[in-house]
Amino acid sequence: MESVKYLIIGAGPAGLTFANMLKRRGETSFLVLEAEDEAGGLCRSKEVDGAPLDIGGGHFLDVRDPEVVEFVFSFMPEDEWDRYDRISRIDLGHSVIDYPFESNIWQLPEDEQIGHLLAISRAGCNTGEEKPAEFSRWIPWKLGEKVAEDYMLPYNRKMWCMDLDRIGTYWLEKLPDVSFEDTLRSCIRHSSIYESLPGHASFYYPKKHGYGKVWLDMADAIRDNMVYGVKASELDLDERTVNGHYKGEYIINTAPWTGFEKIPGIGDDMKKALEKLVHTSVVIKYFDETADTDSHWTYFPDEEKEYHRILYRANFCPGSKGYWTESNLKRADLNDGRPYYINEYAYPVNTVDKREAIALILDEAKKKSVIGLGRWGQWEHFNSDVTVKRAMKLANDMI
Ligand SMILES: Cc1cc2nc3c(=O)[nH]c(=O)nc-3n(C[C@H](O)[C@H](O)[C@H](O)COP(=O)(O)OP(=O)(O)OC[C@H]3O[C@@H](n4cnc5c(N)ncnc54)[C@H](O)[C@@H]3O)c2cc1C
Predict the structure, then answer these.
(1) CB of 212 closer than 6 A to ligand 1?
(2) Is residue 121 part of a domain?
(3) Looking at 132, 161, 189, which one is the last position of a domain?
(4) Looking at the structure, do residues 357 and 267 belong to the same domain, yes or no?
(5) What is the best residue among 59, 84, 159, 345 to mutate for testing ligand 1's pocket, by most ligand atoms within 8 Å of CB?
(6) So what's the pLDDT on residue 64?
């Protein structure tokens, strides 16, 4: 049995940040177990056709928290990154408009604009209708029937490939109501509703590498404490052991809770809660032709197309060509001869009962000094910067 104070499962941004924080604080008794033969998790990149390709999907760094900025740039200095003002679009088949949809309705043909204005004027959030609980009714209530039908509902059907009413609305509640007046003004003035994009208005991407490089550098800084090629398949909560071979005074779990084959010590409530956790899988496919666009990426709600997003690598990765697509695994044709990468765990799904389920799991596990951290440990749509922030905070709190 190998025993350490902190046993960390998973070397994605969460595990790597936590481990590096320990090291910086002088802690030496820790070990990171990683199932793959390299670090980085969903943020990994590979060299494909002479340039980097993000195999977990398009990854861009948009950090606001100064401590996170300092931490990330301490591994890969700012001058090794290019900064871009985001150009992203929505391809509706008949028209291509800037993202976000509700802000750029003015870019559509006149009849389409009128259709949207009428629908927004009748949207439930503008007429005082009671807020529906189901996702598929909440979307038109919030954004108008036409934004829902032309974009949000087909796009979400493609993304999730599941009954949309299993998805909660709590994670979208921060979206501003679509205002009839603002949309009308924007159509008359021919300008966006928002002065700048609500999120990811600008971002960093490495000059010479894919997004995976910074995480490889983080792993290198703790190389003596890394174990690759070990998938934690048995997590014993009472003994705090993994695979009957590694033991921690604390276990920091950043791997998907639903991915363990055995969890000795699990109670009935936690077992039931685990059954409620849902995830989706994403396939990244590479195309070697370069598209004629200045977009960094474009969203595709058209359900005839297998992918929901295209990332135009040539527009953010200097000297590269080609593009890659992102599709839900359930929609992807893996026999078309294109190189592809499957990410089994890509999106934790915000199902109606997820919040209670993950809260119970985290509570029960914590009582046994097993702590969930990161996108899978906390089953949340954290971006990498938020994951880093969470891991830094946990390390600071625990040391
Ligand atoms: C399509 C897509 C686009 C995204 N775009 C962005 C973006 O533009 N910007 C951004 O900041 N974030 C983005 N994200 C989010 C980003 O990927 C996550 O925030 C980040 O990867 C979370 O890090 P993590 O360590 O929690 O999880 P992960 O990156 O998933 O890492 C988990 C690690 O645990 C390992 N593991 C799993 N199971 C086991 C096991 N049983 N035993 C041992 N090891 C195990 C995995 O191999 C992996 O290395 C995107 C995500 C997706 C899916």
Answers:
(1) no
(2) yes
(3) 189
(4) yes
(5) 59
(6) 87
Cis peptide before 100 (omega within 30 of 0): yes
Whole-angstrom distance, CA of residue 141 vs CA of residue 101: 16
Same domain for 181 and 212: no
pLDDT digits (tens, 9 = 90+) for 247-266: 999 999 999 999 999 999 99
Query: Cα(339) to centroid of ligand 1, in Å?
Result: 21
The pLDDT score that the predictor gives to residue 197 is: 66
Which residues are CB-contacts of 352 (< 8 A; sequence separation ≥ 6)? 166, 167, 168
**Per-residue pLDDT, 176:** 79
- Looking up residue 25, the CATH number of its domain turns out to be 3.40.50.720
Q: Is the CB of 374 under 6 A from ligand 1?
A: yes
Atom number, ligand 1, closest to the C-alpha of residue 16: 25
Kindly report the average pLDDT of the chain as a whole number: 96
Could you tell which of 43, 233, 253 is best to mutate to test the pocket of ligand 1, judged by most ligand atoms within 8 Å of the CB?
A: 43
- Residue 39 CA: which ligand 1 atom is closest? 49
What's the pLDDT at 193? Answer: 86
Atom of ligand 1 nearest to the CA of 385: 11
For 297, the 3-state DSSP assignment is strand
Do 30 and 171 lie in one domain? The reply is: no
Q: How far, in Å, CA of 385 to CA of 69, rounded? A: 8
In a domain, 323, yes or no: no
Task: Quote the pLDDT of residue 52.
Answer: 95
Give yes or no: residues 31 and 157 share one domain: no
Q: Which domain holds residue 118?
A: 101-189
- State if pTM tops 0.85: yes
274 and 356: one domain? yes
**Is the per-residue pLDDT at 345 higher than 70?**
yes
Output the pLDDT for position 47: 95
**pLDDT of 196 above 80:** no
Sign of the dihedral through C-alpha 238, 242, 244, 248: negative
- Contact 384 CB / ligand 1 (< 6 Å): yes
Q: Which residues pair with 90 in a beta bridge?
A: 97, 299
388 and 252 part of one domain? yes
Helix, strand, coil share (%) of the chain residues, nearest 5: 40, 25, 40
Predicted pLDDT of residue 194: 80
